[in-house]
Write a structure and sequence with these properties.
The chain is α+β, with helices and mostly antiparallel strands. It contains 13 helices and 21 strands. The radius of gyration is 22 Å and the shape is globular.
């Protein structure tokens, strides 16, 4: 094998766990690349010897998506912000969105789409989607101008909407099946607001909750909207509507105007004020606190995340939320619901709920948190997740596959629908040995090549 650069490669090493903490696997070797060339060399070596390969950033998927019985490439060593321009940034795949946001903020700039928790790597979220609470920005994959990718043949490719588009669109949200992202150019850095005002409204009537969510998103005057439930089922279901408005100091929002015509009176809202950077990093701060208080990283976290059409989300929530037992959520878990404008989610590999004539699509997430070490509980919850997925699928739903639902080849074929034949053909071209990211089992063991 050709000598590597300043990378580190170790045989075996410690067992890797998913953040779900109920699955483990020991890789044969771990590569911490010193350069993109090292990634190319090792993929070529693995192709010759039929060794599977997976990339891993900060490992926030929960069901073994980054585990591999072969070579594990730790992409954090490919971190680094190359440039920040007036409307774009070029960053290494191991760079976190938190790092990019902090670097852009002194220039009064920000990425247009930030997930709730932003301590996630560029390569990781762009391989999945990256769904923010801001409902009109699209996903993080929608904000990419160009990618640098190493394919399963070891070829280094720069791809975009105008060059190697087929690969570009497959890699974005492609679960690591067609290439390993090593660098990304993120477009449309936008002016960062100075302040964020929050309004939280509470409901016991789900009809009123959904009516007000729809009213607010259709007006488009508020920046972020999401629902949450904490420990539902213990004392009845309380629906929380969280609305955040971004603004500059010299142009504050009018609370009564923003909340006009809702079923809840504006004076019942819990109002918060924050500066922009504190707002977008608040979940990262909260997770750090959970690490100290509850050993968060080692808790069992078999999450489930599902897209549902607007026409069926209310029926799904009314059915599922009251049925959740305290263990289904846990003492540090919660339930979230995002809403997004479908027309802003443009990447074809990010599969959404079935079309229903509405431009709105909803993301329902159950973030279960179980006791440290209770692996049996994790597997029990994965079986529960399959039931929740099947229930959603019957209502036109689909997975957002960052989470814990066991899928086989038939499930993946149905998940990708009419896009499936194109993806099979591209897999044959970009990863002919079928080495890349075997954890999700997208193409199974019966590849036709």
């Amino acid at each position: 094998m050709t000598a590597l650069s300043t990378s580190t490669i170790r045989r075996g090493g410690r067992t890797r766990r998913t953040p779900g903490r109920y699955l483990t696997q020991l890789p044969h070797a771990v590569l911490r690349p010193g350069s993109v060339t090292d990634v190319q060399k090792m993929i070529r070596f693995c192709r010759r010897h039929r060794i599977p390969v997976a990339a891993r950033g900060l490992a926030n998927t929960t069901n073994g998506q980054g585990l591999v019985n072969g070579l594990l490439i730790e992409s954090r060593s490919l971190a680094g912000i190359r440039t920040i321009g007036a409307d774009h940034a070029v960053v290494g795949a191991g760079t976190t969105w938190l790092e990019l946001t902090r670097a852009a903020h002194p220039r009064s700039l920000t990425p247009p789409a930030l997930t709730g928790y932003i301590g996630l790597t560029m390569g990781g979220t762009l391989s999945l989607g990256g769904i923010p609470p801001a409902y009109q920005t699209g996903a993080q994959v929608d904000s990419v101008l160009e990618l640098e990718v190493v394919t399963g043949t070891g070829e280094l490719v720069r791809c975009s909407a105008s060059h190697r588009r087929e690969l570009f669109e497959a890699v974005l949200g492609g679960l690591g099946q067609f290439g390993i992202i090593t660098e990304a150019t993120v477009r449309r850095l936008v002016a960062a607001p100075t302040n964020v005002r929050g309004h939280e409204l509470s409901y016991t009537d789900p009809s009123a909750f959904f009516e007000d969510v729809r009213t607010l998103v259709r007006r488009g005057e508020i920046t972020e909207i999401y629902g949450d439930w904490w420990r539902p089922g213990e004392h009845g279901e309380t629906y929380h509507l969280n609305a955040f408005t971004f603004y500059d100091t010299d142009n504050p929002p009018d609370d009564a105007h923003l909340l006009r015509g809702l079923t809840q009176l504006p004076d019942r809202a819990v109002v918060t004020e924050n500066d922009y950077l504190s707002h977008v990093t608040r979940i990262d701060v909260a997770v750090d606190q959970l690490r100290e208080a509850l050993d968060w990283d080692n808790r069992i976290k078999p999450w489930v995340t599902l897209w549902l059409p607007e026409s069926t989300i209310e029926a799904y929530v009314r059915d599922v939320v009251p049925s959740l037992r305290p263990p289904d959520v846990g003492d540090a878990g919660f339930v979230l619901m995002y809403v997004h404008r479908r027309s802003k989610l443009t990447r074809p590999s990010l599969r959404l709920a079935d079309e229903d004539g509405s431009d709105w699509v909803y993301l329902f997430t159950l973030m279960t948190s179980g006791a440290v070490g209770d692996v049996a509980f994790g597997h029990e919850m994965v079986r529960r997740n399959r039931h929740l997925y099947d229930k959603a699928r019957a209502l036109g739903g689909r997975r957002y596959p960052i989470e814990s639902v066991d899928f086989d080849r038939t499930d993946w074929t149905r998940h990708y629908g009419d896009r499936w034949p194109e993806l099979v053909a591209l897999k044959e071209k970009s990863d002919p040995a079928g080495l890349l990211t075997p954890g999700p089992g997208v193409f199974g063991q019966d590849l036709p090549f």
